[in-house]
Amino acid sequence: MQYRQLGNSDLKVSSVCLGTMTYGDQNTQAEAHEQLDYALAQGINFIDTAEMYPVPPKAETFTRTETMIGHWLKNQARDRIVLGSKVAGRNRGLNYIRGGDDSLTRDNIRSAIHDSLKRLQTDYIDLYQLHWPERNVPLFGQYQFDPKLELDAQGTQKSWVSIHTQLETLAELIEEGKVRAIGLSNEQPWGIMEFLRISKEYNLPRVATLQNSYHLMNRTIDFGISEILYRENVSLLAYSPLAFGHLTGKYIDDVTAKGRVTLFRGYAQRYTKPNVAAASAAYAKLARDNGLTPTQLALSFVMHRWSVTSTIIGATSMAQLQENIGAWNTALSPEVLQEIDKLHLAMTNPAP
After folding, report:
1. How far is the CA of 195 from the CAs of 94, 160, 175, in angstroms?
2. Burial level of 215, CB count in 10 A (0-12/13-18/19+)?
3. Residues 6+ away with beta carbon under 8 Å from 306
4. Any idea where the NADP-dependent oxidoreductase domain is (predicted)?
């Protein structure tokens, strides 16, 4: 395991991060403890969660994941663990969060972290992230910006909480010792650069990380954002490296195989697009032709990209978790990497 700096912060994290979005729905408290203990024993010091987890988000499960982590965290040496969480934002129809007032106002962010700290049973969160942008952007499978969504039913420009206000609130939390570093999630190039510009112009905290989807079937990060990461020293936390299980190969021969795709029908629309099945099959064949499992191929590719600081893995079983963590030690040959690029050029980003 390697340990890497998160942007300009003083946080050093393992190159593999334990994702927890199944805790409280697909995984019990006991299973969560077992996973967390195992990950820690393998050298993973980085844990990712969010106030709205588990996912798919539901009113009856909202906040369960943080609560379950808190039961475990209270018995750990806190300084050994880098804990990341996120505040949910607007435009996702989650009307059970803060009574439906889900914009990233000062009061809402402060209320969110107060409640997260209580559930997590800790005094601070190492990395606090904005789960998705406050403004109108294409998200979670949408791939085109739509200017019409900038207007309300009367044709008036919609308002949203300014980036400056969001950064001022996060600055307060850092000053109060409740947050050590800040990050963005599901963000677009304009937003990343605007956060960086405003933080510099007004001497406000600088974002250290970007948590976006990145895998063999979604390499949109490579088109522009990767240069921002490099030149601005922002660390990429790659989520969904197995593309909702599609890159494990399990849905190729059995579309009813047990997994998130079959458990939560209609969720994650990005994986219903044309070429997803064909690309999944092609990458699985490449893996098996080279003595690898599809999971090893997919995870090793993401884990060893120069642009990725830490890869967020998740699992519902210990066997899955062991294979996922073990993929860090799987090296892909130059020949395999070349074949991956050939497939990528033939079927570019079928699941953006």
Report:
1. 25, 15, 18
2. buried
3. none
4. 16-343
pLDDT confidence of residue 252 = 84
| 297: three-class secondary structure by DSSP | helix
Helix (H/G/I), strand (E/B), else coil: 258: coil
Q: What structural domains and CATH numbers belong to the chain? A: 3-245+298-330 (3.20.20.100)
Tokens at 111, concatenated: 């209320």
Give the model confidence (pLDDT) of 63-99 as tens digits: 999 999 999 999 999 999 999 999 998 877 788 998 8
The CA distances from residue 131 to 76, 106, 271, 336, in Å, are 26, 15, 20, 34
Tell me how far apart the alpha carbons of residues 8 and 11 are, in angstroms, rounded to a whole number.
9
DSSP assignment string, 238-249: EE-TTTTTGGGT
Task: Give the catalytic positions in this structure.
Answer: 53
List pLDDT tens digits, range 288-320.
999 999 999 999 999 999 999 999 999 999 999
Token pair for 261: 């795709």
Half-sphere exposure of 287 (CA within 13 A, CB side): 23
| pLDDT at 93 (0 to 100) | 77
d(CA 226, CA 223): 7
Contact (Cβ atoms closer than 8 angstroms) between residue 48 and residue 314: no
Q: Give the residue, 177 or 263, on which the prediction is more confident.
A: 177
